[in-house]
Structures are given as structure tokens and as C-alpha cells.
Design a protein that fits this description.
Elements (H helix, E strand, L loop, with lengths): L4 H4 L33 H29 L2 H22 L2 H6 L8 H25 L4 H29 L3 H26 L2 H20 L2 H5 L17 H5 L5 H35 L2 H11 L3 H23 L3 H37 L2 H4 L2 H14 L1 H10 L7 H23 L1 H28 L11 H9 L2
Length: about 475
């Protein structure tokens, strides 16, 4: 009987000789790249992911517009600074466990245990936020804003566990509906509370409300677990017939969860470093220029996010397919799909840059206040950074799909270090345009290192090697299974 790919790559050999490569791995047929019967096509997944990201980005943008219109530039700056503090810490609870779950084609990590590890990390992230506020001597008002916004983001992390099921079975439509629902509810509640009270703290409590409703009513709903029915090999016990309490209840297996943590830790550290890297200019602006300038920079930064969301949608929609192509050793289709993603992302970024050049001043005047329109040159700089950044999601998805998690840590250490040095050197001298230039330098370093890492992984893929595998290479290959 023909040995499957999963079985062949687990072969162990005690011999130090060099047997033929075929003794370890058989070439899989393209038909072995299985797609779940519940899965949508790549086109439908992209359409849903794009729609979800557009609504999510529009609502995030609407928050800034509401704060600028109803509140003040300083209020925008306080929100931006709280986001810069809480988002990297919330990634402790995220830890990219969704990616680990999706690429776990051997079903070593049951969903319930992933959920248990996630909840433990939520507790750790909450304590970390409180510790940061204490050590930094933030005032009661600033601490309250950070904590409330942090709670909302940690609830997103819990929803990420359920998103793992949806994305594993290539159902980006359910993820997109969740993003749309939580975004619209959150912004609606924020607008009502902000207009009624004039308080940023009460406004942000609307975020918590929106996330809580969608988590219970949609993310953990029976239809999410109905997707599991198409895969009889998974070792999960949950089903659509279970109660809400059962669908929210974690399981504890410390030994296996420590293994999960060890696998996810490099990827999670990479995500945290990415977040810190993106917020480094904000930290330096807050320190050197103050909340008002940070508010202007942050408000303008949301405009390039529209292009970045398109690229993120492409990366999310194709991530599971890239992983399946890579592990089935169908590298030609893997490379072709990645090339198409890069071409589309570059086109989207250039279109956004052209739009800012032509309509930047009028856009700023309509969306915000006249004082923002004085910074159209900064907007063009930021849109240039956004255009280049559009390549990051597809390259990041392609590298993560190879399960090369630890390889990403040194990449983002280098990127974050570059961002910190560039920000400290440029922002005091050039102001907000220096922040944009620092962001551009760091994203260029990130793209170069990520592209080189993908090239290295593909070049050293054991199936492509000529001749025999060395014992060291064989050991490294087996360690990823």
C-alpha cells in the first residue's frame, strides 16, 4: 500500500550511512493536497476576507474620525498611545496559536487544549499590562484607558481560537462575518457612549460590549463546530450539540500544552516584535513631540491601512492553501501562488499612493479637521510606507506556512532594532516625517530578510536535494514533524 506523506516523513534511521532520499520521502501526487469538502474556493475566501478586513479597517478608522470630530487631537493621541501599549502585550495571549493549529496537520494539538493555553496566556497578558502601568507610573485615567482597551483586545485573542477552526477548513466567510459584527457593534457603542458622556474611557467600554456579544453568539456558536464533522481524524470531542458552556470550556494537558507553547513561542515572539516595531515611532513621538503630534501621525496612518487590509486579506485567504502545497511538496504551485500575491499587493499599494498624491488634501479635510490637511506631505510619505508594506502579509504568510517559526525571531529582532535606531535618530531632527522615514527603513529590512528566508527554506527543502540527506539535515527535517 502506498505510504502517505505524513508517514514517510516520520521515518527514523539509526544508521549513519546515507540511504537514498526515497527511503525517507515519497513524492506526493498533486491530488494529495486535500481540500475540505466544507472549504470555499480561494476566490470566495479572498472575497470574504477582503470584505471583512475592509469593514474592520473602516470601523477602526471610524473610531479615529469620531475621536477627532467629537473629541480632540489630544484624545486621538491618548487612544493611539493606549493602543501602542496594549496591542503588543495582547499578542502574548495570541502567540500565533491559530497558525500553529492550522499547520498541525498531524492533529497533535486538540482545540480544547489550545483554548486552555490561550486562557492561561490571557491571564499572563493582563498581569503584564498592570505591571507596565505600575512601573511606568501612569495616572489613574491613563491606566483605566489602557486596561479597558486591553480587555477588548484580549477578548479578540479568545475569538482567535475559534477562528483557527474556521481558517483550517478554509471558511474565511465565518471569520469575516465575525470581524464585521464585532466592528460595527463596537463602533456603534463607542459613538453612542462618547457622544453621551464625552469620555474616552466610557467610549472604549463599547469595544468590550461588541466583542463579548460576538464571542458568545457567533464565534463559539454550533455552526463553527459543525465544520469539524467533515474531518473524522481530528481528536476533538466538541460538537454542535454541546452547550455554550462546553464550547467555552478548556481542557488541561500541561505536558502537551508546554509543547504547544514551545512550538508557538518563536512565532509569537515574532508577532510581538512586529507589533513593537510598528509602534516604536509612536513611543518616540509621544516622548519627544507629545500627544497632539502623536494624534496627527496616528490619524494619518489609518489611511494607508486601507491598502494594507487588502494585502492582509490575500495573505489570510491563501495561508492554509500555501501550507498544504508546501507540505505536499508541490513547490511549483506554492511559488506561483506567492508570485501572484506579490503582484496584486504591489498593484494595490501603488494605486493607494497615486490616490493620496491626487486627493490627499481634500481627503484629510473631509475626514478630519482643517488642521490635518496641513500635513498632506506626511500623508504621502506614510502612503509610500503603506505601499511597500503591502508585500509584508503575503511574504509573512508564505514563510509561516512552511512552519519555520524560529527562523522569524532573528528577522524581527533585526527589524525592531532597525526601527528603534532609525526613530531615535530621525524623529527628533525631522519630526513626523522622520517617523515615516524610520518606518520605511524598517519595512524594507523586513521584506528583504523575509524574502531571503523563504528562498533559503525552499532551497533546502529535502525533496529538492540532489543525492542523499546528511544525518544532520535528516534530523532537522524530522524535528519539524
Amino acid at each position: 500500500m502506498r505510504r502517505t506523506l505524513a508517514e514517510t516523513i516520520r521515518l527514523r534511521s539509526s544508521s549513519l550511512s546515507h540511504p537514498p532520499l526515497s527511503a525517507y520521502v515519497k513524492e506526493p501526487r498533486i491530488s494529495e493536497v486535500s481540500v475540505s469538502p466544507a472549504a470555499l474556493s480561494l476566490q470566495h475566501n479572498f472575497a470574504w476576507a477582503f470584505g471583512g478586513n475592509v469593514v474592520y479597517a473602516a470601523c477602526q478608522w471610524a473610531v479615529v474620525v469620531l475621536l477627532a470630530k467629537i473629541g480632540s487631537t489630544e484624545m486621538v493621541g491618548r487612544f493611539a498611545f493606549a493602543s501602542a501599549v496594549t496591542f503588543p502585550v495582547a499578542l502574548i495571549a495570541n502567540l500565533k496559536l491559530r497558525d500553529v493549529f492550522i499547520t498541525d496537520l498531524g492533529n497533535k494539538y486538540p482545540f480544547e487544549e489550545i483554548l486552555g493555553l490561550r486562557l492561561a496566556l490571557v491571564v499572563l497578558a493582563t498581569l503584564t499590562m498592570l505591571l507596565i502601568c505600575t512601573v511606568a507610573h501612569y495616572g489613574r485615567g491613563e491606566t483605566s484607558i489602557i486596561v479597558v482597551l486591553g480587555v477588548a483586545q484580549l477578548m479578540d485573542c479568545i475569538s482567535e481560537s475559534y477562528f483557527g477552526i474556521m481558517q483550517r477548513y478554509e471558511r474565511m466567510d465565518r471569520i469575516s462575518r465575525s470581524l464585521m459584527l464585532r466592528s460595527i457593534l463596537s463602533v456603534g457603542a463607542l459613538a453612542l457612549l462618547l457622544y453621551s458622556t464625552g469620555s474616552l474611557l466610557w467610549g472604549l467600554s463599547g469595544f468590550v460590549f461588541g466583542r463579548l456579544v460576538v464571542l458568545f453568539a457567533y464565534d463559539a456558536a454550533p455552526n463553527t463546530f459543525a465544520l469539524i464533522g467533515v474531518d473524522r481524524q481530528v481528536p476533538w470531542t466538541l460538537s454542535p450539540r454541546d452547550t455554550l458552556f462546553q464550547r467555552l470550556r478548556p481542557q488541561w494537558n500541561p505536558r502537551n500544552q508546554l509543547k504547544m507553547l514551545w512550538v508557538a513561542l518563536p512565532l509569537g515572539l515574532g508577532a510581538i516584535l512586529v507589533s513593537v516595531n510598528g509602534n516604536v515611532p509612536r513611543y518616540v513621538i509621544q516622548h519627544h513631540l507629545g500627544a497632539r503630534e502623536l494624534g496627527i501621525y496616528s490619524a494619518l496612518s489609518y489611511i494607508p491601512q486601507s491598502c494594507f487590509m487588502v494585502a492582509s486579506a490575500l495573505g489570510g485567504a491563501t495561508f492554509a492553501r500555501l501550507a498544504k502545497l508546501f507540505f505536499a511538496d508541490d513547490l511549483s504551485r506554492y511559488k506561483l501562488l506567492l508570485f501572484k500575491l506579490m503582484v496584486i499587493c504591489m498593484a494595490v499599494g501603488l494605486a493607494g499612493l497615486l490616490g493620496c498624491v491626487l486627493f490627499g488634501r481634500s481627503t484629510l479635510t473631509i475626514l478630519y479637521k482643517p488642521e490635518y490637511a496641513q500635513h498632506v506631505k506626511l500623508l504621502i510619505w506614510l502612503m509610500g510606507v503603506g505601499a511597500v508594506s503591502c508585500l509584508a502579509p503575503c511574504l509573512g504568510a508564505a514563510l509561516t506556512a512552511t512552519s519555520q517559526f524560529r527562523l522569524q525571531v532573528p528577522i524581527f529582532v533585526a527589524v525592531t532594532t532597525t526601527s528603534l535606531v532609525a526613530s531615535v535618530m530621525l524623529i527628533p531632527q525631522k519630526g513626523l516625517e522622520g517617523a515615516a522615514l524610520a518606518a520605511l527603513i524598517s519595512i524594507i529590512v523586513q521584506l528583504f530578510l523575509t524574502f531571503y528566508a523563504i528562498h533559503w527554506v525552499l532551497r533546502n527543502r529535502p525533496h529538492d536535494l540532489k543525492g542523499n540527506m546528511s544525518p544532520l539535515l535528516r534530523l532537522l527535517f524530522q524535528s519539524h514533524q
